[in-house]
Amino acid sequence: MIVGAAGRVGSSLARSFPEATCLKRGDLDVGDPCTVARFGWSRDDVVLNAAGYTDVDAAQSRAGSAAAWRTNHVGAANLAQAAIRHRFVLLHLSTDYVFSGRTTGAISEDAPVDPLNVYGESKAAGDSEVARTPRHYIVRTSWVVGEGENFVRRMLRLAHAGQRPTIVDDQFGRLTFADDLCAAIRHLVVHRPAFGTYNVTNDGTPATWAAIARKVFIAAGRRDEDVSGRTTREFLAEFPKKAERPLNSVLDLGKARGVGIELHDWEPRLKEYLERELTR
């Protein structure tokens, strides 16, 4: 069963698991404990939780914060209780935003969480609820490129519109393409390595958002210099209501590799993605 099947990753999971029952929010509101408790879970051996409130900046507002905590923490807790009661495997999607990104080097699964914003706080709290279940996978990922709006599509639009954007150039990470993330999730579900937390992103040399934007612009026929860089500090000074982001979002992929998950380099995947987008 896929919960949150209409979202950026959920819709990709639905394609990757055609045999699954797909639930959208109208089918199951994970934030409502009574609804989750009454749901007919006994038929399902594995539940993939892709439900999440992911508007990082809106989560800083009062209404957004309430929505983030309701879905990301309370929703995860409700599913965790159902997993214990009905003994199904719960696979839960997490994020690099549970970390501050103030350390250097790749971040391991057992690094202490230290979120910088409400979204990260709510996700970290949800992770801790899922971790209490005996049969769980927490899949931490970052910088997802999937269905609907994403950074690469936004940069393509700017490139085609003749814009010259200024993009943050001191946050490092790797893109994660949704299809590759879903393939890794299928590997966990099918092969059942040890339960626990796994970092899953695309592999390759980390880059900044500005560096990725320049690659997109070049693919669209523009030039490197059409994308300017700036620091996160400068960005937040201009947009003080935006949520603070980690400077280091590079996740250690050793554990995932160790259980046989194939992790493709993000740069060839970006090239393939852009070729598809540019011929649409």
TrEMBL record:
Alphabetically ordered keywords of this record: NADP, Oxidoreductase
Catalytic class of the enzyme: oxidoreductase
All residue ranges annotated as the RmlD-like substrate binding domain in the record: 1-276
InterPro entries: dTDP_dehydrorham_reduct, NAD(P)-bd_dom_sf, RmlD-like-bd
Example GO BP: dTDP-rhamnose biosynthetic process
MF GO annotations: dTDP-4-dehydrorhamnose reductase activity
Pathway as given in its UniProt record: Carbohydrate biosynthesis; dTDP-L-rhamnose biosynthesis
EC number: 1.1.1.133
Family (UniProt): Belongs to the dTDP-4-dehydrorhamnose reductase family.
Stated role: Catalyzes the reduction of dTDP-6-deoxy-L-lyxo-4-hexulose to yield dTDP-L-rhamnose.
Descriptive protein name: dTDP-4-dehydrorhamnose reductase
Lineage: Bacteria, Bacillati, Actinomycetota, Actinomycetes, Pseudonocardiales
